[in-house]
Amino acid sequence: MLLNDMFNLYLLNLKIYNSKGYIDFTIQLQHKIINYFGNIDSASLTYEKILEFINDMKNLNLSNNTINKHISYLKRLYKFNDVECPFFKIKKLKEKFITLGCSDNIKNILPKILETQSLRNQLIIMLFFDTGIRCNELINIYTKNVDNENRCIFLEFTKTNKPRWIYYSKYTQKLMNKYLKKTKCELLFFSKKSNQKMNRFTINSIFSRIKKKFKLKNFSPHRLRHSLSTELYNNGADLLLISSILGHSNVNTTKRYIHSNHVDNLKKYDKFHHIKN
Are 210 and 118 in contact (CB under 8 A)? Predict the structure, then answer.
């Protein structure tokens, strides 16, 4: 069975059960794999060829996290098509999760960043910071689903296909109020050039310019997502609440987004376990 045939069958299944964001991501993986191996027979994808693929990705300085996604996808592809997988026993590479620092550092630089941005960009940045929303979720927000009085947004489009509410700060409420008075589109955000739905490349461009201007090593929507989860946890929010806000279907995924330290953990320990002197 050819790889392309396996991809097409798997993709048909994904389109029934998964969100557009996940499907787009899967198609990107498929293109990369086909570009590397060609449309070869599934039996030709040997253990040795997969090892070469991993080494080549390492030489391109791709992270272990990214490499694991490619290999895991190939394994799911073979399993779905009920094809014997010669490389099934290849183990995951050790992943390094991003250490993002405390949210206070981000709060200190945010005012300087915001004063250099347009109203639209300010609102985009603050929604990422306040809600931990994903890129594809943000660009699919409809103005009708924004309840600015109660500082919340109903997300119809989500990665997990499960609608959810997100909440934002009073500062963002003021930005939203100004922005809604100016926009007349059904979608909350749109491209200035084409007057159509904004894409994630526009989001990436906004953050790339900010990184360059302020000489930041790591400033992205995903970093702000991690920052929110860590701040909520350090301020006493339980994992179920954080998981609900981030839109995780599994609490174990949420744990990976929390970067606590010994000082914060000790404060919590003393709060819940103490002995009178």
Answer: no
The 10 Å Cβ neighbour count of residue 218 is 12
CA dist 126 → 107, 117, 220, 232 (Å): 11, 11, 12, 16
Same domain, 185 and 146: yes
Answer yes or no: do 219 and 110 share one domain: yes
Domain span holding position 161: 103-265
Q: Does the residue 169 lie in any domain?
A: yes
Using one digit for the tens of pLDDT, what is the confidence trace for 118-165? 999 999 999 999 998 999 999 999 999 999 999 999 999 988 888 989
Query: Is residue 268 within 8 Å of residue 237, measured between CB atoms?
Result: no
Number of structural domains found in the chain: 2
Q: Based on the domain organization, do 210 and 260 belong to the same domain?
A: yes
**The two three-digit tokens of residue 214, written as one number:** 């302020």
In a domain, 270, yes or no: no
71 in any annotated domain: yes
In this prediction, residue 266 has a pLDDT band, given cuts at 50, 70 and 90, of: low
Distance CA 267, CA 144 (A): 42
Q: Give me the pLDDT at residue 84, please.
A: 92
pLDDT band at 262 (very low <50, low <70, confident <90, very high): low
* pLDDT, position 267: 66
Q: Tell me how far apart the alpha carbons of residues 192 and 265 are, in angstroms, rounded to a whole number.
A: 45
